[in-house]
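Dear support,

Our group has been running a series of protein-ligand predictions, and this particular one with protoporphyrin IX containing FE is the one our PI (initials K.S.) wants archived with full inputs and outputs. We had some confusion internally about which version of the output was final, so please treat the block below as the authoritative record. The input we submitted was:
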Amino acid sequence: MFLSMIPMGMFASMIPQDAWFRNHYYVVHKTIGVLIFSLLLVRLIWNRRSKRPELDASLKPAERKWAHRVHILLYVLLLAMPVTGFVMTSYHGYPTFFFAWELQPLWGESDAYIIWGTFHKYILPYLIYIILGAHILGALKHHFIDRHTTALKRMVG
Ligand code: HEM
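Confirmed final output from the archive:
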């Protein structure tokens, strides 16, 4: 869901103001965003209550540190995307949707939407490309070069 939201969001920005489906499309983008946010909260509670799997025993201490840092950063990005989307939308004076439920902006309109929009539309997506790219390349290195054949299985299993 998270990955599909990036091209979905790019398309949202391209829809002409007068297109008949613009509002419908925004409802879908916002609904999925709120869903991702809610699932993330469930996931964070789950993480606290269950025992996290141990990292692969063959990892060096520096690799363990980096794996931990990248995981935290991925969670921060997962959280930051829906939050910046919501704040940008609210400062713009528009409601947020969760299916048929409509949440009106919690505060007044302001030009601050430009700053929040810069994060939602540019800074965070580029950070996601870099971090996710590094994460995937790291996993492939472990699988194909270091021959830790369990690495990929553990990520998708
Ligand atoms: C995980 C959640 C989300 C992701 C990954 C995401 C991603 C994106 C991306 C990549 C863009 C377009 C960037 C561009 O212009 O190229 C975008 C646009 C947009 N997003 Fe999100 N979004 C998420 C959640 C939300 C939420 C929760 C809201 C509002 C409540 C929201 C509101 C919007 C709006 C209104 C636009 C269009 C902005 C404009 O063109 O001015 N997004 N989103």
